[in-house]
Structure formats: structure tokens, C-alpha cells
Amino acid sequence: xxxxxxxxxxxxxxxxxxxxxxxxxxxxxxxxxxxxxxxxxxxxxxxxxxxxxxxxxxxxxxxxxxxxxxxxxxxxxxxxxxxxxxxxxxxxxxxxxxxxxxxxxxxxxxxxxxxxxxxxxxxxxxxxxxxxxxxxxxxxxxxxxxxxxxxxxxxxxxxxxxxxxxxxxxxxxxxxxxxxxxxxxxxxxxxxxxxxxxxxxx
Length: 202
Fold this sequence. Notes:
The protein is 30% helix and 30% strand. By secondary structure, the protein is an alpha+beta fold.
């Protein structure tokens, strides 16, 4: 009886293995197809509603945030030139407050969904060099959660108006990022605490 069952068990395992390979292949093909398409942004952003403080919930690894261990925020304000002033803040592992100021330039007015950000010194920031893409890929109607990325799909952020975002909403935005061709296996979940954030701002 045992001898007769061995071929059948082996056949079943083979089917499972083949099925797994096919599913993996389909998954890779789907990601490759998504990555081959141009990255799309939201139709339009109302800049005045987008301004203010955003809390980082998750991001893909990037060299210019290596020192950020927790409590990452981005604050946007409109300046006299009609551009958006940027203030990025975070805490390093030893508790040091790190911050950098920049300026974002709208690239597709009046739709306002594609910007370029410069962190050069203010006196030379007007030069159209060393600017990074900041594309708004998904945002809710109330401007409470946003997915930000760039056309090469190397960088990505999920931002929220509050330091805590429920898992269902986060997964919704991450799944959408995947549908756009983003690889989120290396995603970093940002550690946030509203109490400590307020203490660092004092």
C-alpha cells in the first residue's frame, strides 16, 4: 500500500511545485508589465489643501534619509514666489533632531501633481539643477493620506495627517503602489509618537 502511494504523492507534489512556479512567474510578469508603463499621478491637487504637516508612515530606503530613525515629518508652506517651502524633520537613533529645508517647484500647473524639489542653498535654489521628482500618485478626498513617488519607482513615501494610520488604509495605499510597479519588499515602517514629536518641536 505504501509503495503504491509514493508515485501519487510525488505527482501531487510535482503539481504543487509547477503551480507555484507558474504563480510566481505570473506575479513577476505583472510587476514587469506595471513597471513598463509610465507612472501616473492623480488628476489634480489643490495646493492650499495639501499644505501643512504630514507624518511619514512608510518609505522605501533612500540614502538621504539614512540618519532618520523615527518621528519623520514634512511641513509644506506656500512662499512669496508661489512655490512650496519644504521642512523635513526626523530624529536619529541617538535622539538628535535632523532637519533640512528645501523648495518645491510645480511642474504641471494647474494640475499641481508633479513637483521638483531642491535642497540646494536658498541663494542658488532657483537654478534648475539637482532637483528631485515629487509626484503625487494617490490621495484621498479629504487630503488625509497620500502616496508620493517618482517616475523611476526608486523612492516612495506614504504620508498621513496623523502619526498613526490604520493597517487597512496603509495596505490600500501599498497595494496601489504595487499596481504601479513598485517593489515594496524593502519597505521601511516609520516609528512615530505624537507625544515625542511635540517634544522635539518645542
